Amino acid sequence: MSSISSEPLQPPTPRHTHKPAPLMGDMARKIREASAVPISPLEELRRAFNVEAKESDFTVQPKSPIPLFPPGLGVEQRHGVVLGAQEPGPHVPETVAINVLDAVTVTFGPGLQVNSLKTGFESTLVILMHIPAKTKTETMSHLLSKYGEVQHVEMSDANGNDVVTVKATFATNAEAVRACAALNNNKAIFGTRISAKHASFKSTALGKGFVQDGTVRIEFPAPQKAAYASYETMEQAEVAIQKARSTYEYDCMLDAVVWNGVPSLGGITVKFKGLPPDAKLDFVSQFGENKGTMLERPNYTASIESTGRLLLRNLENFGEIEKVTFLAPPYERQQVVAWARFKSPAGAAKACSGLSGRTPQWLGRGLLVLKHVLNVQYALPIDVWNSIRDDVINIHESFRKDPAPGWVQWRVPTNGKSAVQVKLCASQLPVLSKLKIAFDAVLRGERVTEDGHWVWDPFFSRKAGATFIDIVQSNYRNLLINVDKNKRYISLFGPRRERALARERILGKIRNLHDQVFHTFPLDSGLIGLFVNADLMKLQEELGHENVVIDLAEQLLKVRGNQDAVKVTRLILQDAKRRHVTQRRPTRSSCPVCFDEASLPVTLSCGHTWCKTCLTDYILASVDTHTFPLKCLGDEGRCGVPIPVVVARDLLSSEQFASVTRASYLSYIHSHASEFFYCPTPDCPQVYRSTTTGSILQCPSCLVRICARCHVESHDGTACVDREREDRRLFEQWSRTRDVKQCPGCKTAIERIAGCNHITCVHCKTHICWQCLQTFKESGEVYEHMRSVHGGIGVEEFWF
């Protein structure tokens, strides 16, 4: 049995005057506060919206949690600290976590190899429906524990129903998938069929938005009656009209107009609409003395509760319903608004087609209007909302004017502390997808660029840089600045004028840093090798890594900074000379690429020293080769120690590092072709993990619904086996006319068009003999095999 709840909806709140945006520490605290333990919906309404919500007999379900903070905005990465994580220690981190795509988080380890990957489709939440109401929370926890570590179990209130809904949070996505597979349609546990679904069916990671594509907006007349009253003068009539329109204590918001039709009571007749169905003849006397009153019969007298249950019974004929929510009175325009959430968009579409436009008797022949509305919901901290509000309004105005409109709704809490609820809406999926792309672009902010390239200086990774950013931000009321030290870029959020001013200050600071004079100090030839070690590290700790450079070719130490930096450098040089005056200078290392003395040397953890340019070029070559992990080539290629990921990050520009990490990510995806699949929408970059449960996933970018078993768009109403049988028939028919075989490594279909019998799978990089499908690790082995076993490579060979 689906439940019905009651909650108010407010129109977008006018802009108020807010205090200056706090610094990032305050922002992080607000984010944590906003994600605290949920309160009851009724209390939430009173606190967040300051609206008096009336108690009713309806079942009030806790709201599904809407994730709070969108990725890409990156405020939680300020000062390089992820919320909930420990402060970084002095050691060099071995891994770096990066959002390669907006919804894909990848952890890279040594050699820039992928250690772990989380797609935007993954979730640890499982929703179980039709659980007997008498079931205890402890019983559910014990039942679920056999599928993995259960972190939290939440059961909805029964409120007289026989069944309840259970939300269970597991430790990992794999455990949640396993629980769904075992429990969905299971009758053996409680004697009734359980409905289990993975939360990724509706919830996606991109923007941390909560996607709903099975929602139907329902509108119908509230139970009411009309009255007519006669007044001697127009002034008396206008006073009565104003008083009626200012009355909010009844279920309907009252309306009144001067009436010139039938009936006419003499004098100035006023028609009052929205009166309670049981209103008496003297009801309108509260609006002023009148000469006479007449009442119409009510359109119907049933309560909203009983009407809601009749409506629910009709809706259930078109598909399984998760929840029906009635917005609380007073009802604007004397119309009741409800939202029904179907399990699938197909059921929502059928309900709209079958019920909208009808005039059922149980509504007093009033018009029933249903509209299928797709939406994505966000919850943003108030300061973040203030910084992007103008841009969101521009998006709303732009999409609202389209022939197939989209629109944005928002609720700003009156207490200034709760999260701002933002909802993107459209009646068509392509429109919602475009609307979401525009909104996500606002959430990612405006990158600080110059000549089309991201600007960056290591200064912003240090405390001094963070202090500078805080000062800039504090000068503008609605500006937020995000410094992402992993990706090495700076983003701005706020009104256009404030962004422009802040951008100029940041660019000015970067130009100033780059223009600062380097002070040069000659180094004694016997001191260079020793100074490169502990003394150099000490100086870099004092002045910043970016401000200290050793030029080995010229035997110079270059330091950027003021006179204080010069004094510190001289002291460290004097100390180094005193301590190392009698020590012997070690032999210089040769670069393993150019075999010359290392220029602008970079020493890796294995001890081998590279030219900075040689190491940079070597790392960048992986963008084309897609060969990972990247290993040191020292000892004539025998070293093999992976290059630390932070070394690569510090050497490369922001865009170069992004290119390399993306290449590593793509290499990992292609080499695990049986585990990861691309969204079926053309050009959509999102990937998801394969499952055997037939789960329906929703792409966090294009919002298309995907059958995770068949890897095609969701085929509601058609069994996977039937669809697969037809697809297999068509593919085999096509393959018979072409030279097509499956890769022995990843099972991807490969078509050979021309060339020799040596085939390399573009997905898993397997070397294949096309004639017998034997696989090899190296290409040379394939040719030796083809000549010795098959007598040739498949094409005529010419020897010179």
TrEMBL record:
SUPFAM superfamilies: RING/U-box, RNA-binding domain, RBD. This is RBR-type E3 ubiquitin transferase. Residues 1-22 are annotated as: Disordered. GO terms for molecular function: nucleic acid binding; ubiquitin protein ligase activity; zinc ion binding. Residues 767-792 form the C2H2-type domain. Keywords: Metal-binding, Repeat, Transferase, Ubl conjugation pathway, Zinc, Zinc-finger. PROSITE patterns: TRIAD, ZF_RING_2, ZINC_FINGER_C2H2_1, ZINC_FINGER_C2H2_2. InterPro entries: E3_UB_ligase_RBR, IBR_dom, Nucleotide-bd_a/b_plait_sf, RBD_domain_sf, TRIAD_supradom, Znf-RING_euk, Znf_C2H2_type, Znf_RING. It comes from Phlebiopsis gigantea (strain 11061_1 CR5-6).
